[in-house]
Amino acid sequence: MAEHAVFVAVESEGPQRWTVKADTLPAGPGHTVENAVNDAAQAAIARLVQSREIELDAYAGPVYFMMHGLRSEDRARELAAAFHAALYGDLQPLTRAVPATA
């Protein structure tokens, strides 16, 4: 919280199970997340649940995001970086990491 930054973490849940967490609260009251960013993050999480890449107990914001059950550390890190960028207004990494289905 002293850094006033969005908190993002990748945690191991055991063999081949990873969790991604992102929390905007530590960034302080001056950090705002646009509605379009929240909408995109929530839609990405819904797609990840639908594809069974993450578990149903995912939490999709608007302040805190959590995704359980990822099967690889690399994928967890990719999603963590994508959500971090999105929560600072850059949706491109999230769009690449979790593309919309046609």
Polypeptide structure, described:
With 102 residues, this protein is an alpha+beta fold. Helix content is 35%, strand content 24%. The chain has three helices and four strands, in the order E-E-H-E-E-H-H. It has a four-stranded antiparallel sheet with strand order 1-2-4-3. Strand 1 (7-14) and strand 2 form a beta hairpin. It is globular, with a radius of gyration of 13 Å. It starts with 6 loop residues before the first strand and ends in a 5-residue tail after the last helix. The model has no long low-confidence stretch (mean pLDDT 92).
Question: Which descriptors would you attach to this protein?
Answer:
4 strands; 4-stranded antiparallel sheet; 3 helices; 102 residues; alpha+beta
Helix and strand arrangement:
Layout: E1 7-14, E2 17-23, H1 35-50, E3 59-60, E4 64-70, H2 73-86, H3 92-97
Antiparallel strand pairs: 1-2, 2-4, 3-4
Radius of gyration: 13 Å
Strand order, main sheet: write it out.
1-2-4-3
Shape: globular
Which class best fits the helix and strand makeup?
A: alpha+beta
* N- and C-termini, Cα separation: 39 Å
Alpha plus pi helix count: 3
Identify low-pLDDT runs.
none
Number of strands: 4
Average residue pLDDT: 92
List SSEs in N-to-C order.
EEHEEHH
Give a quick account of the main beta sheet: strands, pairing sense, barrel closure.
Answer: 4 strands, antiparallel
Task: Describe the structure in brief.
With 102 residues, this protein is α+β, with helices and mostly antiparallel strands. The longest helix has 16 residues, at 35-50.
